[in-house]
Design a protein that fits this description.
- With about 350 residues, the protein is an alpha+beta fold.
- It has 3 domains: about 110 residues, no CATH class; about 60 residues, Orthogonal Bundle (Helix Hairpins); about 140 residues, Heat Shock Protein 90.
- It is about 50% helix and about 25% strand.
- The protein contains 7 helices and 10 strands.
- The strands form 3 sheets. The protein has a 5-stranded mixed beta sheet. The protein has a 3-stranded antiparallel beta sheet with strand order 1-2-3. The protein has a two-stranded antiparallel ribbon with strand order 4-6.
């Protein structure tokens, strides 16, 4: 029944009391089959049972008169025994057949699951390869721009002896600085991807955020609620870069105000940074963490940005066994960082 296959009882003997002669019994032979009715998911929802009286058939095999059932001749006992043996053999064959069929079904299901898993892995590999190709293309583009600008300015200066060398050098220095920023960000991502070991220590995120906000020059008003301690274990240099990125990013996109708050929730330190800017559409909330991905408003707000800041921030959160995501908000953008609290902190 559990396998969804019918259960067959080929023949069985029953001594049935004669209703007209109480205390006397007649020999009857019945054959029974129980078949399960399955739903669309393969679950048994109903059992259909059918029983048939095969006494006449058994009597025919024995050559016995159907009415002589109360006291069968002794010579027929061997036939009855043989009939039971054959019936048992049929049951055993059916059971072995059902076991083989069940094994085949399991093997087929495992094969289908293996094929589906391999198809998913192939699709994931293709997506990763496409993403890698796009990252290489984006990196090449972003590296080529400052290099091209640097070369153009130097060639123009060489071609014009009267050119203001200081102005050319300042412009070249800007291009070199942007190039250095991109290379530095790429190296940091490579270290995060490789899981390079770093020194960790207990750090109160509330204190760290307060120090960073005190040292940042924001264009918009910042409302901070950082009264609750939230001690985590991590790399100070990496957490400084991660935490500094969030209010700086909010400041670039805010219209008037930024809110920064720290809380603890379910064993995590939770840093919440919001702004009242245009916000990020739901279908782009994951894309902003992609390497070199920059929305049009981000390019306008920070033309010299590398497009790697949020990628590094998320990878840093993951390296600290935490998460960073864009949360729902009626207006503006809300970034939520969660990092496990240091359970060993006093």
């Amino acid at each position: 029944m559990a396998a969804g296959e019918p259960d067959v009882l080929p023949v069985a003997r029953f001594d049935v009391e004669d209703p007209d002669r109480p205390g006397e019994f007649q020999v009857r032979y019945w054959s029974a089959i129980t078949a399960p009715l399955l739903d669309a998911d393969g679950n048994v929802v109903l059992l259909i049972h059918h029983t048939k009286d095969v006494t006449a058939f058994v009597d025919h095999l024995r050559g016995r008169h159907p009415s002589d059932t109360a006291h069968p001749p002794a010579g027929h006992e061997a036939v009855e025994a043989e009939l039971y043996v054959r019936a048992q053999q049929v049951r055993e064959v059916n059971e072995r057949l059902r076991a083989v069929q069940a094994t085949e079904r399991r093997a087929a299901a495992e094969l289908r699951e293996t094929v589906r898993r391999q198809e998913r892995e192939v699709a994931d590999t293709r997506r990763e390869a496409a993403a890698s190709r796009q990252e290489v293309a984006d990196a090449s583009y972003d590296l080529r721009n400052p290099l091209t600008g640097l070369r153009t300015r130097l060639e123009a200066a060489l071609a014009d002896p009267e050119a203001d060398s200081r102005q050319v050098l300042h412009a070249a220095l800007d291009d070199a600085q942007r190039l250095g920023d991109i290379v530095s960000d790429l190296l940091e991502l490579a270290r995060l991807d490789a899981g390079s070991p770093v020194r960790t220590e207990p750090i109160d995120l509330a204190v760290l955020v307060r120090e960073i906000l005190a040292g940042q020059s924001c264009r918009h008003a910042v409302a901070a609620r950082l009264d609750r301690p939230a001690v985590v274990r991590g790399s100070r240099s990496r957490l400084v870069r991660l935490v500094a990125n969030l209010p700086a990013n909010a400041d670039r996109h805010a219209r008037e105000a930024i809110e920064v708050s720290m809380a603890t929730d379910g064993g995590d330190a939770v840093l919440d940074v919001t702004d009242d800017g245009t916000g990020i559409p739901p279908d782009e909330r994951e894309a902003v963490f992609r390497r070199f991905y920059r929305r049009p408003d981000a390019r306008r707000a920070d033309p010299d940005g590398t497009g790697l800041g949020l990628s590094i921030a998320r990878q840093t959160a993951l390296a600290h066994h935490g998460t960073l995501h864009v949360a729902d908000r009626p207006a503006g953008t809300r970034m939520v960082l969660r990092v496990p609290l240091d359970t060993e902190a006093g």
